[in-house]
What we know:
With 345 residues, the chain is an alpha/beta fold. It has helices at residues 15-24, 46-52, 67-80, 97-102, 123-130, 165-188, 236-245, 283-288, 301-310; strands spanning 4-10, 31-38, 56-58, 85-88, 107-111, 134-141, 151-158, 192-195, 198-201, 224-226, 230-233, 250-255, 261-266, 269-275, 292-298, 315-321, 327-332, 338-343.
Amino acid sequence: MARLKVAVLISGRGSNLAALIEACAAADFPAEIALVLSNRADAAGLAHAARAGIAARIIAHRDYAARAAFDAALDGALRDAGIELVCLAGFMRLLGKDFVERWRDRLVNIHPSLLPAFRGLDPHARALAAGVRFAGCTVHFVRPEMDEGPIIVQAAVPVLPDDDADRLAARVLAAEHKAYPLALRLIAEGRVRVEGDRVLLAGAAANPTMLLNPPGTAAGRATLTAAEPQLFVADLAKSCDFFTGMLGFAVAFRYGDPPFYAQVHRDGARLNLRHVDTPVHDRARVKREDLLAAAITVDDVARLFAEFQAAGVAFHQALRTEPWGARTFIVADPDGNLLLFAGAA
Ligand code: GRF
């Protein structure tokens, strides 16, 4: 299988780059990252490229007097590497019209809002100020105007009552890490066609599911009453993203440099996340035998289940009534730790 040769352009943290690297690691993924370019030598994301053995180059915008010269240097590096598609992932330089036109429909970006709403900086704070019920992210082809261009994939996440910009950003970021690999797959499979200002997708299943936020009729939010387990996790940042982005937790603290311990909390539940290099549990066995890592009690388990459904959580076990009367459901975290949520019937 010939894989689409992709370059990823970053300026900072590079968590979207990491998500794309992870997706491309699958044997059947139709794209490969052949080059990472950064305009900053200190971009933390460069470590992801190094770890994955991907060629990385630093082209510092400060070394170029004019934008056109910087753009030409980027273009040269992309051409030298035989790049077919360019993915902007937190690349904080505006690209000139010539560059954008030269890479027309072969240049994509991810923006953390449901475009065309909230283009530009601070989309999360502006989404909260506007009181929207859904936020999200958009992967789109790049046009010369900032955060404009045909939309390929969007992911929507609910805005929760006690969100601040950081919590909302974390939930959106978890969605970005799903949306970008999906968009890349669709492009690499040749299923994306630009027609005018829109993208037409070939063979995409239609999903008519309605998203309602707040869900159902009851207002308010379920309260987690208790739990304080220690969970073993391979990637602390990814784990924190999952708990904050999908399950409505907040990070209480991270400890160590680099961090090896963190605590996330929601109401009375505190989950201690301990980094381990190699899995402590046999994942297949945990899954097969329903070996729980934590039991978390909830005042309204059905409401919590609906909240998690709206956030797009995948369930190991859906909501059910146990023979002894309790209602439970089970969620697996990114390491396969099974978390049971339980409440009265
Ligand atoms: C993401 O939120 C992306 O949508 C925006 O910049 C941020 C980059 O984050 N364009 P990361 O560097 O990928 O972690």
